[in-house]
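Chapter review: from sequence to fold.
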Amino acid sequence: MLWINFLHLYQPANSSAERIKEAADKSYYRLTRLLEEHPTLHFTFNISGCLLERLRDDGFNDLLERWRQLIGDGRLEITGSAAYHGFLPLLPVDEVEYQIRRQEEITKEILGVDLRGHGFFLPELAYTPALAKLIKGRGYEWLVLDEASLPADIQLAAGGYIDTNSGLKVIVRRRDFSNAYIPELIQKLAVQPSVPAAIITATDAELYGLRHEDPTAEMEKMAALPELQTLTVSGYLQNQERLAEVAFRSASWETNWAEDGDQPFSIWQDRHNRLQTDLWCLVDLVFETGRRYQNDPNLAAYRWHLDRGLASCMFWWASGRDFSHNFGPVAWNPDEVENILNDLVRSVRSLQSPASRKEKLAVEKLAARIKRNLWRCHWKKHFN
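The C-alpha cell string follows.
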C-alpha cells in the first residue's frame, strides 16, 4: 500500500504566540516524532514562510533543527509557496512574485533549503494556468492540485500528469481521502482485498492533532503497518514512466462545480458576498496607495503590515461556509476578519508622506464600512 502524503503547515503571520504554540504542540511535534520513530516514512511538507519566521522568533529552535535533520536524511521534502499565504489568483503579478521570492529567502535562511527545482504548493490549491506558467518560469518542477482542476471529461487516475498549460508535472490529490482522517482510512483499506495503486492526499498538517485530536493514536497505529509504503512527491513522480498530458483548469481544493458554477474561487471571492467584494476593493486601494508612494520613508512598515493583511484567511472567515466535511468549523469569525483587516489599514497609516492623507481617509472610510457591515451581519446571524 503506497501513500503519498503532502502536508501544508501554516499559521497567519499575526497569530498570537499561544496559537503558534498550540499548533506546534498538538500537530508539528507529533508529526515530527512520527517521522523520527518510523525510518521508512517519507512526507512532503510545505511550511509557510511566515510560520517559519514565527517558529524561529518564538524559540522553537529544537523543532527547526529536527526538520533540518529529516531533510538532510531525505525523509522530509520541502516545497515552495507564497510566504504570507496570499490568495494568488486574485493578487497582482508583482505581489505573487514577491511572496514566492520571500518564501525562497526565508526557507533558505531558516532550513537551508534551496527551493528551486522542487515542487510548489499553491495556497488553497488555487490553480490558474497563468500562475502555473509563472511558477514554471521560476524553476519549479511540479504542483499538487485538487481533482476539481481536472477537466470535466477526465476522471482521476493513478499516476502523475503533465500540465500542458505550463509544462509542470502534477500530482492530483483524491479529495474524499484527503477530507477523511487518513490514518483511520488507511487502516480500513489495509484489510480490504484490493487498494488503489497509490493513495494521494494533501491536507493541512493541523488536521493531525490540532483539528482532530486522535486520542486512540490511530496515526501511530497506521505508521506501524508493515504493508505501508511512503514516498515523497518527487520520489513518486520520478518512478512514473509515463505522465498523462492534461490542460488543467482553474480551481481550488474547495471548488464545487455543481454549486459554484462559474466561480471556482467562491470561498474567497463570491460575487454575492458583499463583505468579500468590499474586502477585495480595500486590497486594491491599499495596493494602489503603496504604488503611489514607493519613495515613502516608511515604506518598510507599509510592507510589514501588508504582508499580514493579505492572508487568504480573511476572505475565508468572511465566507460563512460550513467546513465540517473537513474537520473544520463554519468559516465565519468577525474577530479573525477584523484582526487581518486591521493590518491592511495600518499599512496605509504607516506612510509618512503628507500627500497620502486623501488615500488614508479613503481606506479608513471603506474599512469602517466593512466593519460595520461585518458586525451587523454577525449579530443578525447570532440572534436569528
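Two observations follow directly from the output. The chain has a mean pLDDT of 96. Residues 267-383 form one domain.
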